[in-house]
Design a protein that fits this description.
Helices cover 83% and strands 0% of the residues. The chain is mostly helical and 481 residues long.
Length: 481
């Protein structure tokens, strides 16, 4: 966005973080895209069994590629598109991403075979990698640093979480009442609405950086992240000692290590190491990985608890996440006020403490009649998680020039996808503990014991993350103001 557009954003009116009519339309558009991608990652999960039966997937393992095929390209291509949006223009890449996402969603909804569906899901993943960094970059340049930007990021964080929760609930409703294809076709409708709004309200003057693209860095980063997320996502089923898992993780380490070496020498690096080494970027990124990885992983465990221990149906399980979704929405709405009162680091630390205590409190979930405690603890986790997300993204994108916002936007979204390591780690704890208890109790109680061990671990890590935020981010963030 040009300087004139930034000044216009200021002049549109900011009274203690309140947004003007034009600002609300821009935020509605960008959050619509965020909601669409968040919905996509969860709505299809509930529909997987019906998809498998309808399209004739050979096995559960092959069916999982319906979800994984979308995740892998998104994670692998985020850094690339974070830089590309600065080169070609954020508005332009955002429009291309939304258009492609809508087209591939239509292709997925009409797919007649497993291969066509997986290919369309991969296309959705590529498009999501275009949308995620550009939406954040457009947001951070449309709204000036301070209460207005924090409010915008808070609403965006709440909408992302709401998209996940409504996707889980809506997936059950749509699959039960209509057909699994509507889980994809609903994304087409949302995508068209977002596209129409974007063409109308997003400023047409883009920030463009006239530098050549770092091709070696892009290839190494994409390959490394793709291999990392692949190894993490498939390791639980294939086995952590399987050659595919070990090979993927080794390839990830080699490529990402080589990427850092290449970036030191390139005149126009994909991710400037000076930016990556900023305390507000690297430590906020770590906090983001903790909160996103452990909240996502714990949410998966709660689904396991409701279905395998409490015996809930898919629709009841979706409804069981409502407290988490509502609390996340409240957290996003009030995040700007809390960050204003406590500061970025204070809000980050408090958010992680609340998330940690809520998660650790799940240790007391019983084998029957656990709904009330489930709602309380998952609500606390959702509130603390969104507050932490808003605080870490605000911190990561503060004090940067407009030319750096695209790269920073991509980096701020990366923990959401690399956070699959949290799900894999917690799943490994559940499996190990469940196996150790299986010989002495029922399968339901053994599974519950595994869940208890995992949530207690996740809660403890969140509390450690809060201490890291206070110890390593307090001075740098204060210096930025």
């Amino acid at each position: 966005m040009a300087v004139a557009d930034t000044q216009q954003a200021h002049s549109d009116g900011e009274v203690e973080g309140r947004l003007s009519a034009r600002g609300r339309l821009i935020l509605f558009t960008l959050c619509g895209a965020t909601f669409m991608t968040g919905l996509d990652f969860s709505v299809v999960t509930v529909a997987l069994p019906e998809i498998g039966r309808d399209l004739g997937f050979a096995s559960t393992g092959s069916l999982q590629w319906v979800a994984t095929a979308c995740l892998l390209p998104t994670a692998g291509l985020l850094p690339l598109f974070g830089r590309v949006c600065d080169l070609v223009g954020r508005r332009r890449l955002f429009l291309v991403g939304v258009t492609l996402f809508s087209a591939f969603s239509l292709a997925a909804g009409l797919a007649g075979s497993p291969g066509l569906l997986i290919a369309a899901r991969a296309g959705q993943g590529v498009a999501a990698a275009m949308i995620a960094p550009t939406a954040i970059a457009l947001m951070t340049t449309a709204f000036p640093e301070g209460p207005q930007r924090t409010r915008a990021l808070g609403v965006n964080g709440a909408v992302l979480s709401l998209g996940f929760v409504l996707g889980t609930l809506g997936g059950g409703v749509i699959t039960s009442g209509l057909n699994w294809r509507w889980t994809m076709l609903i994304l087409v409708i949302i995508g068209v609405l977002v596209l129409v709004c974007a063409l109308s309200v997003l400023p047409k003057n883009d920030v463009r950086v006239p530098v050549r693209l770092d091709i070696p860095g892009a290839l190494l980063a994409s390959t490394g992240l793709f291999a990392l997320v692949y190894g993490i996502s498939t390791g639980g089923e294939a086995g952590w000692t399987a050659w595919t898992t070990v090979g993927s993780l080794v390839l990830a380490v080699v490529c990402l290590g080589a990427f850092l070496r290449v970036e030191k020498r390139h005149v126009a690096p994909l991710v400037p190491l000076g930016l990556l080494n900023r305390p507000t970027v690297k430590w906020s990124g770590l906090i983001g990985l903790i909160t996103l990885g452990l909240c996502g992983g714990t949410t998966v465990l709660l689904s396991l608890y409701m279905q395998d221990v409490l015996g809930y149906s898919a629709l009841q399980t979706g409804a069981g996440f409502l407290a988490e979704g509502v609390a996340a929405l409240v957290g996003g709405i009030y995040a700007a006020r809390l960050i204003g009162a406590w500061g970025k680091v204070g809000a980050m630390a408090v958010g992680l403490v609340v998330q940690g205590l809520g998660t650790a409190g799940m240790f007391f979930l019983p084998a029957a009649d656990g709904l009330v405690l489930l709602l309380i603890t998952s609500g606390a986790m959702g509130f603390g998680h969104v507050l932490t997300v808003v605080a870490f993204i605000t911190t990561m994108t503060s004090g940067l020039s407009d030319e750096e916002q695209g790269v920073a936007g991509g980096l701020s979204q990366l923990p959401q996808f690399v956070g699959a390591i949290g799900t894999a780690g917690l799943a490994a704890i559940v499996t190990a503990r469940t196996d150790s208890l299986s010989g002495t109790t029922t399968q339901e109680l053994a599974t519950l014991g595994g869940l208890h061990a995992a949530v207690l671990t996740a809660g403890g890590i969140c509390l450690v993350g809060a201490a890291i935020a206070v110890a390593l981010l307090r001075r740098p963030v204060a210096a930025l103001g």
